[in-house]
From TrEMBL:
This is Parallel beta-helix repeat protein. Pfam families: NosD (PF05048). SUPFAM superfamilies: Pectin lyase-like. It comes from the Archaea. Residues 31-211 form the Periplasmic copper-binding protein NosD beta helix domain.
Length: 218
């Protein structure tokens, strides 16, 4: 049996310990292929008037703490994973996806936003899933989840409760092509107690199915 000396064992133990410390001490920001987002908005572009930070590059973004500001996505091929954390923005929207495609917004608890909790404007082929959107739209009765001029998106398995306007709304102005929201899939959402309606969507041009909404009073 080969014996291992004391000094090599100590050196190995120290190397393992230092690697563990390095992993646990990684700060917010770009970590390999994932960009971590904290409440300081480190590494993102601030948009002061709306209390938001702008995501303008493709990639995977992961929250590592709750946020007191919104996020605006203007790049294609973005995954924003809330990692179960909260987001609130008392000034404007929670998450806005604007003029881009192939964006995923998931696993966020969004509440108390002055505008929509999640807004898709002129967005296509995006996925909004497994989010909780409550008590949003305090200004002008804005919906919890709002789509305008957006096509071929999927709004799936979200919990949308007690927002000031509609729960989920897809604006559809027939004579203004850029304002039409069509070919979207609204499926398996729980949408309750939204005073202007739970799902305000033109079902003739969108796929609306399998949602749980507030029962009508008899």
């Amino acid at each position: 049996m080969t014996k291992i000396g004391y000094k090599p064992l100590v050196a190995l133990a120290l190397a393992v310990l230092m690697s563990l410390v390095a992993v646990s001490a990684v700060p917010a920001g770009n970590q390999g292929n994932t960009i971590y987002i904290d409440d300081s908005g480190s590494g993102l572009i601030p948009d002061g008037p709306t209390n938001c930070y702008i995501i303008n590059e493709s990639g995977k973004y992961l929250l590592n703490e709750s946020l007191t500001h919104g996020l605006k996505i203007i790049a294609n091929d973005v995954t924003l994973d809330g990692n179960g954390y909260n987001l609130t923005n008392r000034i404007a929207f929670g998450v806005q996806v604007y003029n881009c495609s192939d964006v995923t917004v998931r696993d966020m608890d969004i509440f108390g936003c002055n505008w929509a909790g999640i807004a898709l404007g002129e967005a296509s082929d995006c996925m909004v899933e497994k989010n909780c959107v409550t008590d949003c739209g305090k200004a002008w009765g804005t919906p919890g989840i709002n789509l305008w001029g957006s096509v071929c998106n999927k709004i799936i398995n979200n919990y949308v409760y007690n927002n000031t306007g509609c729960g989920i709304k897809a604006n559809d102005i027939a004579n203004v092509e850029s304002e039409r929201s069509i070919y979207n899939k609204i499926h398996a959402n729980t949408v309750l107690e939204n005073p202007l309606g739970d799902i305000c969507v033109n079902e003739s041009v969108n796929d609306v199915s399998g949602n749980h909404v507030t029962p009508e009073e008899e």
